[in-house]
Amino acid sequence: MGTGNLFVIAAPSGTGKTTLVKALVNELPGLAVSISHTTRAKRPNEENGLNYFFINEDEFRRMIEKGEFLEYATVFGAFYGTSHRWV
Fold this sequence. Notes:
It is a single chain. The protein contains two helices and four strands. The protein is of the alpha+beta class. A four-stranded mixed beta sheet has the order 2-1-4-3, with helices on one face. A hairpin with a 2-residue loop joins strand 3 (69-75) and strand 4.
């Protein structure tokens, strides 16, 4: 497995994180974005496997039990998590 740098972009909802990340990906060769898992409902403009992996709560809890997440949290009643696989 290769090594690299991990950058975390964190800020409140609606502050421009997605815009910033898109600009960085377009400007920096080799930069990739991890895709998080979530239990929230997919919005009309989102695609499974592109914006998030949309899964149900039972599947999310199974992934927690298997230790598949680097981190996870509950936000506004929905689970969000970053899997080892994507990092």
